[in-house]
Amino acid sequence: MKVNNSVLVIGGGIAGMQASLDLASRGFRVYLVERNPSIGGRMVQLDKTFPTMDCSICIVAPKMIECFRNPNITLLTYSEVQEVNGSVGNFTVKILKKPRFVIEERCTGCGMCAQHCPVEVHNEFDMDLGIRKAIYIPLPQAVPLKYTIDNENCVKCDLCQKVCGAEAVDFNQQPQTISLDVGAIVVATGFELFDARTRSEYGYGRFQNVLVSLEFERLLSASGPIGGHIVRLSDGRIPRRIAFIQCVGSRSLKGGVSFCSSACCMYATKESVLIREHEPECEVYIFYNDLKVFGKGFQDFVARAEDDWGVRYVRALPGEVVEDSKTGDLTLWYEDTTENTTRSIQADLVVLCPALIPRATSKDLASVLGLELDEYGFFKSKDAQFAPVDTNVPGVFICGYCQGPKDIPESVAQASAAAARAAEVIAQGNEGVH
Amino acid sequence: METEPRIVAFLCNWCSYAGADLAGTSRIRYAPNVRPIRVMCSGRVDPSFIVNAFEAGADGVLVTGCHPGDCHYVSGNLKAEKRMKSTARILDLLGLGSERLRLEWVSTSEGAKFAQVVTDFTEDLRRMEPNPLETEFNAKSPVNAEDLISKVIRKTNVQYCLECGKCSGSCPISKVNDAYSPRRTVERFLLGFGSKVLSGPDLWTCLTCFTCTERCPSDIRYPEFVRACRRIASDEVMEELCAHRGIPMALSRVMTNPSVRQERMGWLPEQAEISQKGELLYFVGCLPYFDVVFEDLNLELLKIPRSVVKILNRVGIKPVVLANEKCCGHDLSWTGDLENFEKLARMNVAEIKKAGATRVVTACPECYRTLKKDYPELLGNLDFEVLHVSEFLSELIDRGELRYDAKLPAKMVYQDACRLGRHMGIYEPPRKVIAHIPGVELVEMGRNRENSVCCGVSAWLSCNKYSKAVQIDRLIEAKATGADLLVTACPKCQIHWKCVTSEKLPVNPEDVKIEIRDLSVVVAEAMHLA
Amino acid sequence: MTFEPKIVGFLCNWCSYAGADLAGVSRIAYPTNIRIIRLMCSGRVDPVLVLETFANGADGVMVMGCHPGDCHYVEGNLQAERKVKMLKKLISRTGLEPERLRLEWVSASEGGLFADVVRDFTYQIIAMGPSPLAGEKPDVDVLEGILAAKAAAEDFRLRVLVGREKGIIEDGNVYEEKLSQEKFDETMDEAIATEYIRNKIYFTIRREPLSVRELSKHLDLDPQAVLRHIVVLRRRGMVAVDRVEGTTPLYAALEVGR
Amino acid sequence: MKRAEDNAPRIGVFVCHCGINIGGVVDVPQVVEYAKTLPNVVYAEDNLYTCSSEGISKIKEGIGRYNLDRIIVASCTPRTHEPLFRAACEEAGLNKYLFEMANIRDQCSWPHLHEPEKATEKAKDLVRMAVAKAGLLKPLVEPEIDVTPSTLVIGGGISGMTAALCLANQGFRVCIVEKESELGGRLKQLHKLYPTLVNASKGLDQISGAVKANRNIDVLTSTLIKQVKGFIGNFEVDVQRGNGETAKFEVGTIIVATGTDVLEPVGMYGYGEHSNVLTQLQLETLLRDGKLEMPQRVVMVQCVGSREEKGRTYCSRVCCMTALKNAMLIKESHPRTDVHLLFRDLQTYGGHYEDYRRMAQDMGVKFIKYSLEKPPQVFPKEDGRLDVSVYHALLGEEINLETDLLVLSTPLIQCEDAKKLSHMLKIPIGPDGFFLEAHVKLRPIDFATDGIYVCGTAHSPKDTAESVSQALGVASRAAIPLAMKHMRTEAITAMVDENLCSGCGTCVKICPYSAIAKDEKGVARVTEVLCKGCGTCGASCPEKAITMRHFTDDQVIAQALAAVRRELA
To answer: Are D171 and A259 inside 8 Å of each other by CB?
Structure first.
């Protein structure tokens, strides 16, 4: 029987986008489903990328726009997969399109509505450090550049409706269910952050000057909440010493996850170099256990950070962070394991590198798709060695962090891999018609 | 034939010893039962000498010194007199009887008096029962070190050590003592260099405060590891590092003897209502003894059990209080004397069951942990529930049965005792009990709950400059909160803090000057029961 | 005010331009003076481009390409090397310091090296001072020299020699005979010398008609040699007798369509 | 009828702040104002992010509203962003070759971030240069070519075979060229694969079986690539078989899956001197063949010849896990054997590898961290055993380990014929000796040269699962042009003016792609699909008869003059 020539890609991060572009640029119809109002995923939250220090948004924005422009890709943003039936070659998928209360076809992204919206709330995209309006785009480079009303916070003052020249605001918009037929499915739902609050000895959530890395990325980012200036949130002072703590919740048998997130050592190094670049006066310490330098160019990058930028690496995981309630300054207690001495060090800012963990929602998606999860909650490969992107369900493929910890290039390569397998099953279904 | 009483006599060098010599040179006959020990001054005689002597089976202990005023060292003999009084009280508590201990003044010229004293004492002792205690220490039974270690390494996850040093970075002692690092201790065992550690001080340095355990990413239960290793570690080192010459441990050991009949109800307030049998049993713990041992610190420790009983009575409960309650054995189990610990455990459980109690309330976190956790691990499930008084009180609050009549306009800060907090996870009930007191503002130290800091000593081990540093640091933190009152639910915290503040301080005394009171006492005050 | 030299860099797209980007991405600082022109390959650098750039007052010119063997176009970079070699010889005759032209190999992964060579060259130029052709009043003689050099570089003879150098040395000429590098260099030097001087003569008499004697004095050259060049130039239709003063013909340059 | 000045170009300039990447250093508004003063510039504006969909639509609007016929974006490097902006021009109906970029970030604001004024001046100059060139730009068209629907896979290891199989199953013809006499590559030497401990041979047999059975795949073993000519869609491959005979065939795309060698640690830790010093790979083979008579004590040293100060600085990624696995295999069969693992940083990254470490610890494998400064030392004993003395970096103590067997974990290194291939295919090699991808982050398995891709350990050290992921990845990348059947090529090519050409043939000799040949009239003619647009021919043409499109003499000279002569503005 005829196999459907279109593919559903779940997740609009770098992996999802790469898979979509690979498939679309060779003629497959692709439906790219993203739960957030904009595609882009985690990468757009980053400032720079290691080890080349490319500006993250600079290199990913073109891909986002390509996805938007490619005639073979249908973007289904602010949408979620609800139901999947059928089997390889002929899946029928139900997608729930959440109401934006803004008619996408009409919205020009001019931003007039947001200018006038009286409601200010924390911006999730900025890790709640920044402010957005109740009608908003998560980031300036949002794709599609369409505004969204967040219903929780909207006060229905209808100012936006009044000022919108395009008459795009529609408070009566209803959730709609879209039904699609696809031949294969690619899952690329990425990761979320381990809740660092649960490691209370580090005081995240209790002390203002203890941040998690992704928050710090937003601080560093030019388009971030404070325009890329490094200051303490407690008093706006420029920190003179910043300490990074690795393995917060990772490599843990207790109070965390047992695996290594693979990216932290390197992004901490990157952020450290950026600090030294922004604020040459500011000392940077990275407290680590095993330095994970297994990737291409990693070791050289660390050497550069240490020798050229003066980043200091201490082989120790601090026991605790103590706050001086008056000044907001922090004291870290640690045993320098290579010096065999236990000391304390003052820091103005502490950045925690929490484990990057499978999304809580993976379970639901797994049950919708009938996928198995591994003991950590990642989508399980059919064969760890020889079929990494295949799953227990024929025709459903996985790539990116949701399959297991990896960095950006690994995710990109694996996304292409998932695309190839999807193309393969469709081609075989069609007896290799080309 | 009946055995002859054995008397250990401590003679001061200048008067009594000479007196004894004179008795000899003057060929004055006296009972042969005495075994004299020469000390420079009767003031040298430590209560532990006496307790150990009885533990070893002595039927009587005689202490002799110069007459008041004649002391070669001005007032050593008066100090001795004071000590003998309190030691006598301990003997009474233990049910051995204070009459087995005798203090006499014998001068150089009083050979005859010496002979007389000895003979009389011997006679009196003949009329008494012989000392029921066994005649030798209960030596630890031998175990195969090798496989005990390899077993406990697995049991406590030690093999998963990543050597990240988070333990040392958390350990209150490591912070002040570079020589000590749980990580290095563990690593040595892993590499097979354990013997070095077993013969060193490190095992006895651990406060078993569970801070490292709380934080270790590899879930290594270091204190449990330490406890197990102490079983095979050198006792000599332990005794060296043990404070108060091991009296507390000696007392516990003494109590393991089934024939010991204590008399420890003396502390009960006169109008107190208690019962022999009943649902709820109040497990008092060692407070009556500590009240004596630490009388110099005038802690008024007995206020604690009295408050508890009054509170219970007030809410209409007549708790069972065991006449012959034994030490829970906490300190023995944490110093590796599992044999004696087990004896105590069995006896206590038997007594509790005999009383038909289904709920046991205690005001001591160590008793709490030991009864609730260690007993069942040793003896299987017990058919009674164990509650810390704070749990019991917060129950009452929930049921609206606890009425505070007094207003205590005070700012209070609460110390989480290790055993209550990190060991057993009791953080909120005590806070609830305090916060409910009208007028009280409950504040927190920066390091609270699971991040709370130990009072610096456990099981009387390694009480040294490092533990003092820990204690002072903590008191400063408490004081800095601006609280008027530091509330703890653990008598040991109180003892150790009072002790450090009673000495010469390396810091401005004002910085650590804060009143310390036990939770139950505070509650009693708030109920007008003080 | 301090001397801020004008430096133009001709960079190949694949290695050197990427290397320059990498220097930026890695925030490796270097002097701001260089102005980069992106070409697909360093082999694209026509000698005329370089001379034109100098003629317009550039204080320095850098040509950068892939390391030998890495060229995206096999050996465009080697072609560039030959052209630069020729150019330096040519320039050395004009009164402009040949050190103002430099060739460097920088790969895509050598951001640091890029910064180093640019820094080094910039400081070198600063030390040398402004080009005699920079600013409002360029040195007329040197300018003439450069124009002559440019004309020479545009001329068939030099171009074909440079273009064929590899062929002639490695594959051999039409008679299948391979020239040694030395032999070739001799030929090349001779060509450079004559082509330059001929154009120099041309540009000199373009200002005002001159006699052979005057020219030989002006160029400090044996009158016979001058005459020989005049003959060639007349044959090429670049020079004609302007007028005869007494017995002395004065030669003038013709405007040729180049 | 149009008046003369109407033919003058209408240039639009868009200057990007790139957040503060440019705006934080260069005075962007000033640059915009300056741009407006330049000849033929009829419109100029600044954008926070010109590459955002908002910025893109600004460009399109500009083209419409001010009927701009030349677009300049002053932002980052054309190497990454030119395609995006060109596409925008096209969508607005403007030929994309009428677009020019000024690189005021990577080559201005970033390297000169400490000199804002000078950086601003430079930015202005760069814009002026772009304007000068833009005025002279000509519209160009990209010729369309057909794509040979087949792929050459160089290397018959697990990566090559996986890629080939996936492509073949998509209906494309694939030719695997393997220098060895049989398929399999490195996996042939391996015993069990971590973390699943499946036999390497098992997976290998399955895949090579499928490869041999697949009718779309030709396998050429004992075969070497002699020469590769042509370009994406139309590569011409010459190979030489083991028996000496040569073959020639055409493919559309090429996959490089040549794998790596393993470092032979000659002269390190007594390797080569003492028979009981092995490499991890030798141990692996012994374990597989059951030839290892079990030692009492084993010491494994990690990072032997990798992560060095100078030289081989990279981490070889797979060694820690391989050592752990082999240590466990030894422990499994001989629990009493002592195994010490001397490591620097344990690379137990990713999903299962941490638990794998714990398994080893459960089995009693002992870990000692040593430091680069004080590496372990080996002393032979009379009885043939070895004393390994190591400074325990985390105890600060020298520890002596008596051992019967010393195992050295040595890194994967570039294989010796990689250089040859790199020259043949024009694919770069990075500082670590491995092939260098087009972009480390977003094009990890493409080469800068179209139609050629890299996967597996040829790219960098990685384990089987990671190699397979990449192999499947290139199977997608390489399939794209094949599936499209035909594609457009560069419009930037050379063009000969017949009237000027003297037929001297210099260009014919110079062109490395044989893209220029003399025609019947004896003048040079360019075959455009072969021309890669380097322009060397033009720079060498004695008659100056060759025009290099998009980089014409007058365009480049205009840029050069603009660079040095401000007054020209």
So the answer is: no
Taking only the tens place, the pLDDT of each residue in B202-247 is: 999 999 999 999 999 999 999 999 999 999 998 888 888 888 888 8
> What pLDDT sits at residue A434?
37
- Chain A contact present for C26, CB below 8 A: yes
CA Rg value for chain C: 21
Q: Is the minimum CB–CB distance between B116 and chain A shorter than 8 Å?
A: no
Is D97 in contact with D82 (CB distance < 8 Å)?
A: no
Q: Which one, of D86, D71, D6, D87, lies nearest residue D35 by Cα? A: D71
Any bridge partners for residue A336, and if so which? A341
Distance CA D238, CA D253 (A): 14
Residue D86 CA: distances (Å) to CA of D10, D55, D96: 17, 13, 5
Residue A349 host element (H or E) = strand A349-354
Phi, psi of C248 (to 5 degrees): -100, 115
Query: Maximum Cα–Cα distance for chain A, whole Å?
Result: 73
Please state the rounded mean pLDDT for residues A176-194: 97
Neighbour count for residue C115 (Cβ, 10 Å)? 23
Lowest mean pLDDT among A109-118, B384-393, B447-456, D376-385: A109-118
Write down the mean pLDDT value for chain A. Answer: 93
Q: Give CA–CA dist A252/A247, Å, rounded.
A: 8
Kindly indicate the confidence band of residue A432, based on its pLDDT and cuts at 50, 70 and 90. Answer: very low
Are the CB atoms for D278 and D291 separated by under 8 Å? no
φ/ψ of A119, rounded to 5, equals -95, 120
Could you tell me if B224 lies within 8 Å of chain A, comparing CB atoms?
A: no
Q: How far is D538 from chain C (nearest CA, A)?
A: 7
Average pLDDT of the residues in D542-554: 93
- Residue B159 in contact with partner chain D when CB distance is under 8 A: yes
Cβ neighbourhood burial of C255 (10 Å; 0-12, 13-18, 19+): exposed
Residues in chain D closer than 8 A to B159 (CB atoms):
361-362, 364
d(CA B471, CA B172): 10
Percent of chain D at pLDDT above 70? Answer: 98
Model confidence at D2, pLDDT cuts 50, 70, 90, reads: very low
How many CA atoms, within 13 angstroms, populate the side-chain half-sphere of residue C142? 18
Mean pLDDT of chain D: 93
- Name residue D288's amino acid: R
Dihedral class, residue D19 (left if φ above 0, else alpha if ψ from -120 to 50, else beta): left
Q: Angle at the Cα of D19 (from D14 to D23), degrees rounded to 5?
A: 65
Mean confidence (pLDDT) of chain C: 89
Enter the ipTM: 0.82
- Whether residue D195 is preceded by a cis peptide bond, meaning omega within 30 degrees of 0, is yes
Whether A338 sits inside 8 A of D483 (CB atoms) is no
How far apart are the CA of D316 and the nearest CA of chain A, in angstroms? Answer: 7
Q: How confident is the model at residue C173 (pLDDT cuts 50, 70, 90)?
A: low
Task: Say if D113 is an interface residue toward chain C (CB within 8 Å).
Answer: yes
Lowest mean pLDDT among C147-151, C237-241, D431-435: C237-241
DSSP state of A379: B
The average pLDDT across D154-160 equals 97
In a 3-state reduction of DSSP, which class is residue A245? Answer: strand
Asked, as a colleague might, if the bond just before A144 is cis with ω within 30 of 0, I would say yes
Output the CA angle A42-A46-A52, nearest 5 degrees. 115
Contact C43 D539 (CB under 8 A): yes
Residues 6 or more apart whose Cβ sits within 8 Å of residue C202: C148, C151, C233, C238, C239, C253
Report the predicted TM-score, pTM, of the whole model to 2 decimal places. 0.83
User: CB-based contact (8 Å) between B166 and chain D?
Assistant: no
